[in-house]
Amino acid sequence: MEKLKRQSSSSQSAETKEKTGKTLFLIRHGESKYNSEISRVNEQFVGEERVKKVRELRFSLELIDPSLTDEGERQAKELTSLLKNKNVGLVITSPMRRCLQTTRCAFSNHQSKPKMIVLPLLKEHSLGTCDIPDDIKTIESDFPEFDYFLLNDYSCKELWFVDMMENEEQKKAFYTEMERDGSSHAADGIEKVHKIMTQEMVKAHPIAYESLEDLNKRVDKIKKWRKEQLRGVKDEESVVVVAHSYILQTFISKDGLVKLKTGEIYEHFLSFDEE
After folding, report:
1. pLDDT per residue over 185-209, tens digit each?
2. How far is the C-alpha of 152 from the C-alpha of 155, rounded, in Å?
3. Are 205 and 55 in contact (CB under 8 A)?
4. Is the pLDDT of residue 93 over 80?
5. In this predicted model, which residue has the larger pLDDT, 97 or 7?
6. How do residues 9-52 score in pLDDT, each as one tens digit?
7. How far apart are CA 205 and CA 96, in angstroms?
8. CATH topology for 4-274?
């Protein structure tokens, strides 16, 4: 399989002639520590033991917002050569650490010097601890080259990932547990926030903490945001989106079910007329 996947040339050329869209390069983050551990468990265990080990990993506090592995960093650096001759005007990334690291590796020395913004809505589907973000102050300190202005849209920047939840009952349950634990704000300790969020995810299991219905509501907001914002990018410039498997599938659903591997890139023409 080619490292750079492309939308079929016939449909892409037909749409491009209309000049009512934008070329996107969709990138799934490089291999994370969670991805690596899941692969190890799937190779070493079978049956009920595998199910048990996967569950342990899904709710491990050691895998909160995991970093890239060495292999993940290698995958991210490979993207540099694939994108070096592309005129990239804007990079939009998920706020998760693995995506920020991937973006940094791919664009730190890119000739276009694109603006790199963090879009909270691109956060991964909330299923386990690897989908709980780190403290935003730590993230901003570790990755100062990114623009985080969209996080200011939330009532509590430190708890943006709670504020963005579609399920009001889940929000209420989370804040109730925060108050019961003697905390009312993330400033009281991000470790408490992580612990409580993990407890809520465990309670919901085996049902996904973020339901597919709620996730699709978030996807609708992504589509609305990109329709409004991407029209402002110059015609000759491309846009890169660095995110997660399911979220990226929503960008290319009309091309068929394209599931990207870690570190893989897909070229797609987004027609504004179909948004």
Report:
1. 655 688 889 999 999 999 999 999 9
2. 8
3. yes
4. yes
5. 97
6. 434 544 444 557 888 999 999 999 999 999 999 999 999 999 99
7. 22
8. Rossmann fold (3.40.50)
Q: How far apart are CA 26 and CA 265, in angstroms?
A: 5
- Whole-model pTM above 0.90? yes
- pLDDT-derived band at 6 (thresholds 50, 70, 90) equals low
The total number of residues written for the chain in this structure = 275
Q: What is the 3-state secondary structure (H, E, C) of the chain?
A: CCCEEECCHHHHHHHHHHCCEEEEEEEECCCEHHHHHHHHHHHHCCHHHHHHHHHHHHCCHHHCCCCECHHHHHHHHHHHHHHCCCCEEEEEECCCHHHHHHHHHHHCCCCCCCEEEECHHHCCCCCCHHHCCCCHHHHHHHCCCCECHHHHHCCCHHHHHHHCCCCHHHHHHHHHHHHHCCCCCHHHCHHHHHHHHHHHHHHHCCCCCCCHHHHHHHHHHHHHHHHHHHHHCCCCCEEEEEECHHHHHHHCHHHCCCCCCCCCEEEEEEEHHHC
CA distance from start to end of the chain: 29
